[in-house]
User: Fold this.
Amino acid sequence: MTQSSLFTIITITLNNLNGLKNTAASIHAQTNQDLEWIIIDGGSNDDTPEWLKKTNALWISKKDNGIYNAMNKGLKLANGKYILFLNAGDTLAAPDTLAELAEAIYTCSIVPDFIYGDALEALTTKECLYKPARPFSKPALGMFTHHQSMLYRREALTDMHYDEKYKIAADYDLTVRFLKNKDKILYLPVPLCIFESGGISQQNAQLGRKEQMQIRKENKISNTFTNAMIYTIQNLMWKIRQIAPNFYWRIKSKK
Assistant:
């Protein structure tokens, strides 16, 4: 790991050693290793601390104040040009994902401040569904792709960090604020990550939607009526996902 690494991958974890090992295998399998890996462990009481001692990642194992507090710790340690959050259990979509990203960066006519792509969502250990990203130009509709398929140029982030008053949607808040004055944006129409279902954002989906509603209001990206409509539609789509998952995925999935 060097200060000139193209990528910084930040992984937060708590008592999820199996998931962390899956993430590690994905990172180690990358054909492009121009990266630094930072692991922020919230003081796990499983075998994670012992496993961390054997890894070449930069790591901290200490009790924190939640997901976004851990992410902010990772941001402070990052030295790579582009930052990607890949939490324990999440993986890169393929062994050449970072190589594809590097080629896109080096051949781009601009220096992108923000890069995003599609995602795969792992419903089971054997089934993944393709979730294409929506246009970034419509942030009021919510996260346009999974956070694990977004890369932020570190220098463009300056001193921005996650607002820890949000417990579920601080990633949405940061992305909305970050993109307000950015026009150097690169979209790759390929999956960048495999997102592990069942995490805290899905366990607390209702709180996440309420926080997104507040974020839209605070950032003035929708009027009161539109904000309420988006919230209602999000609730409806979540209910459809629970009641009729096959129909939901026909709407959401590319293939």
About this structure: The CA atoms of residues 101 and 107 lie 10 Å apart. The first strand starts at residue 7 and ends at 13. The beta strands are 7-13, 35-41, 58-61, 82-85, 91-92, 114-122, 128-131, 150-153, 185-196. Residues 7-198 form a domain with the Spore Coat Polysaccharide Biosynthesis Protein SpsA; Chain A fold (CATH 3.90.550.10).
